[in-house]
Known about the structure:
Shape: elongated
Low-confidence stretches: none
Number of helices: 6
Structural class: mainly alpha
Number of strands: 0
Strand content: under 5%
Largest sheet: none
Mean pLDDT: 84
Oligomer: single chain
Amino acid sequence: MRILNFAKIIVVIVVFVGCFYYGQNVSYEIQNTLYEGLRNTSAVIFGIMGIWIAVIYPDVLSNIFKKKERGEIELELRKVNRLLYPLLYSTLALIVVLIVTTLAPLLKLIPFFIKNYMLLRGISYSILGVLTLLQIWALILALIPGDVLNRGLARYLNKVKIADKLHSRNQRR
């Protein structure tokens, strides 16, 4: 697990540094379009994960807010926990996008940043790169419930198929 976490950190650092270096030449107008794309992706992930939670665990969220013992609530939360990570990652990305797109026009008015606009572009593009990685990870996590549901359905259909075969054999005898 430590190796995987180390690899994630290395990837984030490489993306951040690479985006900083090359992103200094990307105008803010182009970057702003990319920020809008991240904002839209966050909305899509919110919708997908909201639907998964409603379909797979319709009673869990309402049960969490009812008066229950701590152990019962923790069990309910563990069920939904995997579905909440993409929501949390998208929320974080959305917060950063909102802050950057709000501050950018103001920073363009400050003399230090006017002189060092390449630095500002590089930082902005680095943020874009890291947020894009985060959104890609959130999208991958958003696919997991569908895969789990698909595997569960396949197991169920196999059981039905076996039961049907056994039933048809017993009727022939």
